[in-house]
Automatic annotation (TrEMBL):
It comes from Nonomuraea pusilla. Residues 5-259 form the ABC transporter domain. Residues 323-362, 507-570 are annotated as: Disordered. This is Macrolide transport system ATP-binding/permease protein. One of its GO terms (molecular function) is ATP binding. Residues 335-362 have a biased composition (Low complexity). Residues 83-110, 247-274 form a coiled coil. Pfam families: ABC_tran.
C-alpha cells in the first residue's frame, strides 16, 4: 500500500451541523501539513476521519497501513502502567528484530531460497525506516526530553497528571515512528525545550505528518503546508509557506470575498429593479385602440419586442445569480471585551447559580488579611508544596498581568492552584478581604453535557446577567453553535464556553489558567490590560507570550500596568 494519505470529498455532520463539507486532502511522504482554523472548524473531526476512528457520511480515505494518531484525550486505559504504553510503542520495532533474526537463521540453512531473500529484504527495509535497532535507546531519549525520564514505569496512567498523560501519548508515537502521524494539539502539555525537541523529531520524519495546532511557532517550525478549515468562498484552502504569510494571504482573500459579495449583491439589486421596471414597461404597452394603431405601427411593436427580450435576459441572469450567489462572509470570531467594560467599577453582585465548570471559586484554603499594603490582592511568603513548588515571596497587585513560565514539572499549575485557594500549602498565603479568584482549568468538564450552550450559559449566570452580557456579544462562541449540546462541542469550544462563563461573571481578581490561542488571543490580550483585571497566565504558545510580556505602547511604566514574568525553574 502506498505511504501517501489521500482524502476525497469528505462530508461529516454532527447533530444538526455540517462540520466538514467536501474536504479533500493529499499528503505524500515528506509532507507536513498543519490544520488551522477556529475552534469547531473541524480540525479534530478531520483527523479522526483520516485516522479511521470515525467514518465520513460520504467521501473516501486511503491511508498508510502504519499510521499513528495522537488524540487530545489519552487513548489508553487508566489502569495501564507506563511500562504497558512503552511496550506497545516498542512492539513493532522488537517484532522487526525478532523476525529478522528468524529469517537470518532460515537463510543460513537455505541461502539460495529466493522467497526467503525477498522476505528478508522487505523486513530489513521496514526496520531501517523505523530505526528499529535504535528503538530502546530512542525511548529513553524521548522520555527524558519530554520530562518523563524520572517517572517510574510502574505508575498507572490514573496516577499521572493530565500533562504527563499527554506527553506519554506523544512519546509513544515518537518512539514508534509510524509511516504517517496525525497529531491533535501536540504542544498542549510541552514546555519550550520539549516543544523544540518535538519539532526536531517531526522535521526528521520521512513520512506524512498532519497536525492540528494553534501554536504559531510550532506551525512555522514544522509544517511545509497549511490547510485553513475556516469558511471560505471556495472551501478549504491550502497554503505553502510560513504562518505569517498565511495570515497576510488570508486577509487579502477575505477582502476579495467581501468585495465579490458586495459587487454581486449590488448587481442583484440592479437586476431586480431592471426586471421590475422593464416588466412594467411591457405591461404598460397594453392593447392599442384602432385610432392608435396607425401611429403605433411597426416601430412600436419592435420596441415592445426589445423590451420583452431585455426582461427575459435580465430575468435569466437574475435567476442564475440567485441560484449561484456567493454567500456572505461569516463575521470573524473575535473576543470582544466591550460588554465587560462596565463591570470594572461595579460592586460585587449577590451570589448566583452554581457554575457548570469545575473547579469552583477559592475557599478558606486562603486566609483573608486586612494587613496587605497598597493595591496588593494576594501575597505569598515562604510557600511550599513538597516536591512541587517553592516560592519565597510573591505579591499580586491590582491591574497586574502575571505570566508564569518554566519547564514541565516546575510547578506552574501548582502555583495557580495555590493562588486560587484550591490547594493547601505550607507557609503564608494572604488575600484581600472579599477577593474571589477563579481558575480556568486545562481539562474542562461540564456537569450536564446534554444541555445546549445557550442553556448552560443562562443557567450558570442567571437570566438577568445572561441578558445584560449576551453570550453572542463576547465573540467566543459562534451564533450557529449556541443551540448545540455542550457534548457536541470540540475540546477548544468547550474551553471557550468555560472562559465565557468566567469573564461574563468575573470574580474580583481573576487569575486565569491559560487563555486560549488565536483567533481571539490578540483581543484577549488587549482586554486584559484594563486596570481592574487580574490574570495569572500559564501559556504554551510562544508567539503571544512575548506580546503579553511587553509593556503597553504609549503608556508610562507603572507598578499597576507593567506585565510581570515569574519564572519557575524547579
Amino acid at each position: 500500500m502506498s505511504d501517501a494519505l489521500l482524502a476525497r470529498d469528505l462530508v461529516r455532520t454532527l447533530g444538526a451541523r455540517r462540520v466538514l463539507d467536501g474536504v479533500s486532502l493529499t499528503a505524500a511522504p515528506g509532507d507536513r501539513i498543519g490544520l488551522i482554523g477556529e475552534n469547531g472548524a473541524g480540525k479534530t473531526t478531520l483527523l479522526r476521519l483520516l485516522a479511521g476512528v470515525e467514518q465520513p457520511d460520504s467521501g473516501t480515505v486511503v491511508r498508510p497501513a502504519d499510521l499513528g494518531f495522537l488524540h487530545q484525550e489519552m487513548p489508553f486505559d487508566s489502569r495501564a502502567a507506563i511500562a504497558d504504553v512503552l511496550d506497545d510503542a516498542l512492539r513493532e520495532a522488537r517484532a522487526d528484530l525478532d523476525e529478522l533474526d528468524r529469517l537470518a537463521r532460515a537463510l543460513a540453512a537455505a541461502p539460495d531460497d529466493a522467497a526467503l531473500l525477498r522476505e528478508y529484504g522487505v523486513r530489513l527495509e521496514q526496520a531501517q525506516e523505523r530505526e528499529s535497532w535504535d528503538a530502546d535507546r530512542r525511548a529513553g531519549i524521548v522520555l527524558d526530553r519530554l520530562g518523563l525520564g524520572g517517572v517510574p514505569h510502574s505508575r498507572t496512567l490514573a496516577s499521572l497528571s493530565g500533562g504527563q498523560r499527554g506527553r506519554l501519548a506523544l512519546a509513544a508515537l515518537l518512539i514508534r515512528r509510524p509511516a504517517a502521524l496525525l497529531l491533535d494539539e501536540p504542544t498542549n502539555h510541552l514546555d519550550d525545550d520539549a516543544a523544540e525537541f518535538v519539532e526536531e523529531q517531526l522535521r526528521g520524519m520521512t513520512g506524512v505528518v498532519v497536525v492540528a495546532s494553534h501554536d504559531r511557532a510550532f506551525l512555522d517550525a514544522v509544517c511545509t503546508d497549511l490547510i485553513d478549515l475556516d469558511p471560505a468562498v471556495d472551501g478549504p484552502v491550502r497554503y505553502g509557506g510560513r504562518y505569517g504569510a498565511y495570515l497576510a494571504e488570508k486577509r487579502a482573500e477575505r477582502e476579495r470575498w467581501e468585495r465579490r459579495h458586495a459587487e454581486e449583491q449590488a448587481e442583484l439589486g440592479e437586476l431586480r429593479a431592471a426586471v421590475a421596471v422593464t416588466a412594467r414597461q411591457v405591461a404598460g404597452g397594453g392593447l392599442k385602440r384602432d385610432s392608435e394603431k396607425m401611429g403605433y405601427g411597426h416601430a412600436g411593436g419592435r420596441v415592445q419586442h426589445q423590451i420583452a427580450r431585455r426582461v427575459r435576459n435580465a430575468a435569466r441572469r437574475l435567476a442564475q445569480l440567485e441560484r449561484e450567489q456567493v454567500p456572505a462572509p461569516p463575521p470573524p470570531l473575535r473576543f470582544n471585551p466591550r460588554p465587560l467594560a462596565a463591570d470594572a467599577a461595579e460592586p460585587a453582585r449577590s451570589a448566583e447559580p452554581a457554575r457548570a465548570v469545575e473547579p469552583a471559586r477559592a475557599d478558606a484554603n486562603v486566609a483573608e488579611s486586612r494587613g496587605l499594603h497598597d493595591d496588593t490582592l494576594l501575597s505569598l511568603r515562604g510557600v511550599r508544596v513538597p516536591g512541587r513548588l517553592s516560592i519565597d515571596r510573591l505579591d499580586v497587585r491590582r491591574g497586574e498581568r502575571l505570566l508564569v513560565t518554566g519547564p514541565n514539572g516546575a510547578g506552574k499549575s501548582t502555583l495557580l492552584a495555590v493562588l486560587a485557594g484550591l490547594l493547601d500549602a505550607e507557609g503564608e498565603v494572604r488575600r484581600r478581604p472579599g477577593l474571589t479568584v477563579e481558575l480556568l482549568a486545562q481539562d474542562t468538564v461540564f456537569e450536564r453535557p446534554d444541555r445546549t450552550v445557550r442553556e448552560t450559559y443562562e443557567r450558570a449566570l442567571g437570566p438577568e446577567r445572561a441578558e445584560s452580557v449576551p453570550l453572542s456579544s463576547l465573540g467566543l462562541i459562534g451564533s450557529r453553535d449556541v443551540d448545540l449540546r455542550v457534548g457536541e462541542l470540540s475540546v477548544g469550544q468547550r474551553r471557550r464556553l468555560a472562559l465565557a462563563l468566567l469573564v461574563a461573571d468575573p470574580p474580583r481578581g481573576t487569575p486565569a489558567r491559560r487563555a486560549h490561542q488565536p483567533p481571539f488571543a490578540s483581543p484577549l490580550r488587549r482586554a486584559g490590560r484594563g486596570p481592574e483585571r487580574r490574570r495569572a497566565r500559564r501559556d504554551r504558545d510562544r508567539q503571544p507570550r512575548s506580546v503579553v510580556a511587553r509593556p503597553l505602547a504609549g503608556r508610562p511604566r507603572s507598578a499597576a500596568m507593567n506585565p510581570i514574568r515569574h519564572r519557575l525553574d524547579g
